[in-house]
Write a structure and sequence with these properties.
The chain is built from 6 helices and no strands. The protein is mainly alpha-helical.
Length: 110
């Protein structure tokens, strides 16, 4: 459920430039605190899991680069805050349908 909250939070920031501007300069601690006050409840680990999954998908599926230091994605971080990078280089490169498919709950196989 917390990864869902992260995704909703990032999609809301993508849709609202004022929200992105408000969150971009914040530290991780501040981001978590204010996100919770705005109705999004997730941990640093949840956020890292979502961002990692998005990065892997952009590198491997979208850019078809090797998952190593030569990936084109890593150069996109320079000159932006981490939050701006996540929104502009990860979230914006996925449709809502792609995001839903990446984070839909998987059935457990017994």
């Amino acid at each position: 459920m917390s990864q869902t909250s992260v995704l909703k939070f990032l999609m809301a920031a993508r849709a609202r430039p004022a929200m992105m501007a408000r969150y971009a300069p914040r530290s991780l601690t501040q981001l978590l605190f204010h996100a919770k006050n705005d109705g999004f409840d997730f941990s640093p680990e949840d956020l890292a899991d979502v961002v990692g999954k998005l990065e892997a998908n952009v590198i491997v599926a979208k850019d078809q680069d090797p998952f190593n230091e030569s990936s084109r994605l890593w150069r996109q971080m320079w000159g932006r805050t981490h939050f701006e990078y996540v929104i502009e280089q990860l979230i914006e490169r996925h449709t809502d349908e792609e995001l839903a498919a990446l984070f839909e709950p998987r059935e457990q196989v017994s």
